[in-house]
Amino acid sequence: MGLVLCATRGGEESIVTQQKAISIAKERVDPLVFLYVADSSFLDKTAAAVVVDVQDELMHMGEFFLVMAVERAAEEGVGARAVIRAGSFVPTFIEVAHELEATTIVLGRPGGETGRFNEEDFSAFCHYLAEETQAEIITP
Amino acid sequence: MAMNLFLLLNTSHLSHLKLLDSGIVDTGSEPVLGIAVIISSVIFILVFVAISFQLLHETAAALLGAVLVFIFTYVGSYFHPDLSLLTFEEAMDFVDWNVIFLIMGMMIIMAILAETHVFRWLAFRLYQMSRGRTWLLLATLITLTGLTSAFLNNVTAILLIVPLSIQVAVAIDLHPFAIVIPEILASNIGGAATLIGDPPSTIVGSHLGLTFGEYSSHMAPISLICMVVLIVIIRVMYHSDIRKAKKTISPILLERLASESAIEDRPKLFKALFITALTFIFFFLADIFNRMPPSVVALTGATVLMIWVRPDMHRMVHEVDWTTLLFFVGVFITVGALEATGAIAWIARQIARLAGESVMLATLLTTWVSGFASGIVDNIPFTVAALPVVDFLTETVPGAIQSRILYWALILGADLGGNATYLGSAPNIVAVGLLSQAGYRVTFGRFARDGVPVTIITLLIASIWLMLRY
Questions:
Q1: ipTM tops the 0.90 cut
Q2: Range of the domain at B205
C-alpha cells in the first residue's frame, strides 16, 4: 500500500493540485496526506522589527488551509490527514516524504507569473524530488 | 580640520550642516568634492543598492557601510590623511539614540501585546459584526490596520492582521489581494499619523525634537483624510470582487477561525492594554514634563509592563529585534560619513538651486522626490540621508523655517510613497511574503496596479494640504 503526499497552500492553483491528489488517492485506495510548510524566510528580506511570532501565525494560517483541504477530500469520500511543519520548503518537504514513506507526490504546476517556479525550474525540481524521495511525481 | 571643528561644536544635525558648509566652503563657492566625499558617497550608494535590490540582508548591508567608513578612517588614513571619513567617537554623535530607544521600548510593549492575540480577536469580531456584508468587513479591516499601524507600528499591524484576513478572504471566496493590498496601503498611510507609526516619521520627529502630541497634531489630520480617500478608492477598485464574495462561511471553518481568535490570557491582556494606554497618555503629556523624549516614555512603559507581566526575560530580550536596531545604527553611521565629508552639503546646494527661493517649489520637490524615491528604494536610509538636505533647504528657502513645511513634506513623501511598489516599505515586503505563504504570489506589476494610483492620489492630496495648512 502506498501513500499520496500533497504539498499545499491556499491559492487557486493549490485547489487544482488538491483535487488531483484526491482523485489519485481515491483511484489507488491509498491514504492521502496534505502538507503545509510554514516558511518564514521571507522576513530575511527586511530589517523591520518583527516582534510577532511569525511562525505561529503561519502555522495557524496553514492549519486553516489544511482544514479546507481535508474537508474537500471528505466531500469526495476520501479520508485525508494533515501535516504541518515549519522550516525551509524543499528540505522540509523531502524530510516529510521520507518520514511518511510517500510513494506518490502531487505537486502544483507553476501558475504563469504567479507560480513559485518557472517551467524549467519546476521540471528540474521534480527530477530532484524524484531522486531524493524515490516517489512518483505527479503534476495536475 | 573643518570637520573636527564642526563635530566639536555639534549640538544638532542642523548645526552640523551649517558649520560643515561654512567650514568646507571657504569662499562661499562650490564645496570641494574631495576624495573623502567620493568614498563616502560610493559607500552609501553601495549600501543603498544592496538594500534596495536585496543583495544583502538590510542589517548586514547597513553594518557593512558603517564598517567600511571605519576601515577608511582608521586604516586608509594611515596611508593618506584625506581618507579619514568619520571616527568611531564622531560616529556615535550621528546615531539618534532617541530613535533607537523609542523603537526598542515600543518593541517590548508590542511583543507583550501581540502575545495576547487581541488583534486576531478584533479582526474576527469585525468579521462577525459585518454579518456577510463584504464591503463593511473590508472597510473595517482597512481601518483597523490603519489604526494599529498608527499606534503600534505598521509592520506589526501587518503581521498581526494579515494572516487572519487571508483566511477570512479564502473562506468567503474573496481573492485575498482584495483585502491584503488595501491593508498594506492603509498601514503606510496610518503609519504617518504618529511619531511611532512608520520609521521615517520616527526619524524626522526625533530629529526635530517633537513630542508625540506635536507630531500628531500636524500629521494625524492628513493621514485621516488619506485613509478616507483610500477606502473610497478601494470601493471602486474592488467593486466586482466584493459583489461576488460569499456571505457565509462553512461551520467547520467558522469554528476554526473562532478558536484561533480566542483570547487565552485575559489578565495579561488587561495589564498590556492598561500599560499601553498609560504609555500613550504619557506620550501626549510629555510636554508638561520638561518635554520628556518619547524614548523615555516608551522605555518606562516597557519596563513597567515587564515588571507587572513578568514575562520570561530571556525570551523577551530575544523578541526585541536587534537586527532592526543594528540596521538603524549602521544607516546613521553611513549617512553620518556623508554629512561629515560634505557630500550632503553639496547635494543640498544643488537642490536648493533648483528650488530657488520658492517655498512652494521646495515643498513640491521634497514631497514628490521623496515619494518617488520611497517607491523604489528603502525609505529608511533615504529619509536619514534626506534629512540634512531638508535642514539646508529649511535654512535657505525663505518662509520654510517657522512652519517646518519641508519636514512634513519629507514625512508624507517617504511614508505615502512607500505604497507605490512592494519594495517601497517594510510592511509591503512582509505582507507579500505572507501572501506567498498562503499560495498567492504578488508580482511587481500587480502590486503597482493598486499602489501607484493610490500613491499619486494621496501625494496630490498631501501636496494640496501642505499648501493650504502651512
A1: no
A2: 98-319
